[in-house]
């Protein structure tokens, strides 16, 4: 999931801090997600997906496709 979040964030030209502001999560939390150090709650998946301009299921599917 972290790799997908990072790639989408970078494609949108956002910093970790900007993404964090969009979804009301701290930039260090975003960084730990991108490094694969965190398991995400459904609520946070939805918040991040919305901030990235995609639906939660699209984020999950993209992460599953990367496995």
TrEMBL record:
Q: Does the keyword Glycosyltransferase apply?
A: no
Give the top-rank taxon of the lineage listed in the UniProt record for this protein. Bacteria
Keywords (alphabetical) are: DNA-binding, Transcription, Transcription regulation
Indicate whether Transcription appears among the record's keywords.
yes
A Pfam match is: HTH_3
Which intervals hold domain HTH cro/C1-type? 5-59
Any Gene Ontology CC annotation: cytosol
As given in the record, the signal peptide range reads none
A molecular function annotated in GO for this UniProt entry is: DNA-binding transcription factor activity
Checking PANTHER family in the record gives:
HTH-TYPE TRANSCRIPTIONAL REGULATOR (PTHR46797), HTH-TYPE TRANSCRIPTIONAL REGULATOR SUTR (PTHR46797:SF23)
Q: What is this protein called?
A: Helix-turn-helix domain-containing protein
Source species: Polyangium spumosum
């Amino acid at each position: 999931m972290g790799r997908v979040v990072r790639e989408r964030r970078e494609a949108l030209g956002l910093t970790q801090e900007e993404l964090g502001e969009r979804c009301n999560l701290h930039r260090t939390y975003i960084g730990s997600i991108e490094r694969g150090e965190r398991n995400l709650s459904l609520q946070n998946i939805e918040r991040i997906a919305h901030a990235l301009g995609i639906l939660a299921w699209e984020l999950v599917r993209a992460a599953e496709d990367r496995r």
